[in-house]
Amino acid sequence: MSVLAEPNRRLDADERRAQLVEAGLGLLESAPFDKIGAAEVARAAAVSKGLVFHYFPTTADLHVAVARAAAERLVGSLVTDPELPQERRLALGLEAFIAYIERAPAAYLAVSRGAGRNEGLLAVYEDARRAIVQLMVEALGYDDPPPALRIMLRGWNAMVEEAVLHWLADRPIPRERLVDLLKQAALDCVSAALAAEAAAA
Amino acid sequence: MSVLAEPNRRLDADERRAQLVEAGLGLLESAPFDKIGAAEVARAAAVSKGLVFHYFPTTADLHVAVARAAAERLVGSLVTDPELPQERRLALGLEAFIAYIERAPAAYLAVSRGAGRNEGLLAVYEDARRAIVQLMVEALGYDDPPPALRIMLRGWNAMVEEAVLHWLADRPIPRERLVDLLKQAALDCVSAALAAEAAAA
């Protein structure tokens, strides 16, 4: 149900903020991140530019809010059924990640490569990385994983992002093969990290 | 030999440009990338600010030139003796990469996370990634590697960057263990990619 469906209803502050972020997320699927400003969001949400400025005083504020919502949606899409076997969960997570980037690769690239642009975007990016690693850590049954495992999971996440973005340019191998290779890389990294920790203990 | 040693000698344009970039590189080891401007470079190179502006009309031009020089230095440091066994070359390359980032992690982070800030920086970052993958492709004996291998090598590069930056925060495992894990990940990715290509052929 879209909040846009009832333009005349008076929204409370949280709803209004969510509506504007939602409008920004919608724009992100067709416009580059840099081109999303208060004017575009106001138009998409059928509200005044002044109202957008009221909630997001600067373009950076707006970008951070939209990026955070996009990142939360991404992390949410990666949650898998804990009843499923781990390899299946890994494959489902990879498929969801690829589908997510595929929907708006330019937007993803803008956030990932542009994260250093401001502290807020960098925090969104770091939080998303941390949340994804946490999903994996929990799937592996750890509260507090050994450091080698955490480092390699961070690294594997970066590998997935880069491999998928690179693959998307011309999709030179079938999607299933990409998923298989990245799944295998995760299994290899996890077992190497655990073996290294066991040997060191 | 520093060009700064002879302040009164008249430098030709290329030498002068190189001197200014060199001064910028020096600053990068102690100051964040964002804080390096024409004034700082002029002071470090003992020249006028106007001269810096003559070669680098904008701060973005200066940043791109300094980042490119830093990236070229990084790629140069990763070249290893082709006579050595491949695993040894891989370990040496990883050690050089870690040493490079260790010297100025904030600067590396600024370029890698801030690459989306402008087209020039993004190009420097992409060119460096491409050059590093090319070093690996050549070490593996390929002119034109199969796509799965190229994708996984790109991914592995991103993994190394992320793992090293994450490790540097508190170095929770010994450096040799990090090198071993990343080396093992490369070997695993390469053999999985080649096996997938062989199965598909």
Care to describe what's here?
Two copies of one chain form a homodimer. Helices cover 74% and strands 0% of the residues of chain A. Chain A is built from nine helices and no strands. Chain A is elongated. At the A-B interface, helix 6, helix 8 and helix 9 of A face helix 6, helix 8 and helix 9 of B.
Assign a percent range to the helix content of chain A. over 70%
- First and last CA, distance of chain A: 54 Å
Please outline the major beta sheet of chain A: none
- Secondary structure class of chain A reads mainly alpha
Shape of chain A: elongated
Task: Determine the oligomeric state from the structure.
Answer: homodimer
Helix-strand sequence of chain A: HHHHHHHHH
Largest interface: A-B, 42 and 42 residues
- Model regions low in confidence, pLDDT < 50 over at least 5 residues of chain A: none
- The number of distinct β-strands of chain A equals 0
Rounded Rg of chain A: 19 Å
Determine the mean pLDDT of chain A.
89
Structure annotation, total helices of chain A: 9
Strand content range of chain A: under 5%
Write a concise keyword list for the protein shown above:
homodimer, mainly alpha, 9 helices
Summarize the structure.
Two copies of one chain form a homodimer. The first copy, chain A, has 201 residues and is mostly helical.
Q: Which helices and strands appear, and what pairs or packs with what?
A:
The structure is a homodimer of 201-residue chains.
Chain A: H1 13-28, H2 38-45, H3 49-55, H4 59-77, H5 86-103, H6 105-114, H7 119-139, H8 147-170, H9 175-200
